[in-house]
Model the fold of this input.
Amino acid sequence: MILSNVAIQQCLDEGSLVIEPEPSPRRPGSGQACPYQTSSVDLQLGEEIAFFRDEQQAVIDLRNGDFLSRVGFQFETTLLKDDEPFILKPGRLVLGRTFERVELPIREEKTCLAARVEGRSSHARCGLLVHFTAPTIHAGFAGSIALELINLGPYSLALYPKTPICQLIVETVEGVPFRNDSQFQAQTRPGGLS
Done:
């Protein structure tokens, strides 16, 4: 079951969902855009982007190793600045992270939550795909959320830090899952770079 904005805020209040810093304002009408849609909450783009080096012509063998051991050596990173955006050219893939840290604690005595990350329709209409093949954020996850960003539109897109970039759709999980953390648990940089 997908949670409404009211239910998302109740989960934030009781600690079954943690988003730090918490998106605000909680209601429309304060002069700021309200990040709570009827059944999702907007998250912002973090300050670092990882991208493949242009000069490298490598072949990535998807059968071997985890993500970082396969492609980590192919990445460069840059920090986004308020006065100098990262220009995402058509056809280019970059990795980013949410500005917010999200936690979906597994609680033995209560229903757990999972979530999905989806792009925003206003960005999609410009050609931006966000987190396009693996949108599930599993119960037990804690950290900022990795974002795969690709520009499929005809024009370059300017990426600034703290731009609302995606939406988190929160769902209930039936039963209490056992822990089986992914290779991306608790990562703090795009692409899992350290």
In short: The two ends are 36 Å apart (CA to CA). The mean pLDDT is 86. The domain at 5-26+39-175 is CATH 2.70.40.10 (Deoxyuridine 5'-Triphosphate Nucleotidohydrolase; Chain A). The longest strand covers residues 93-103.
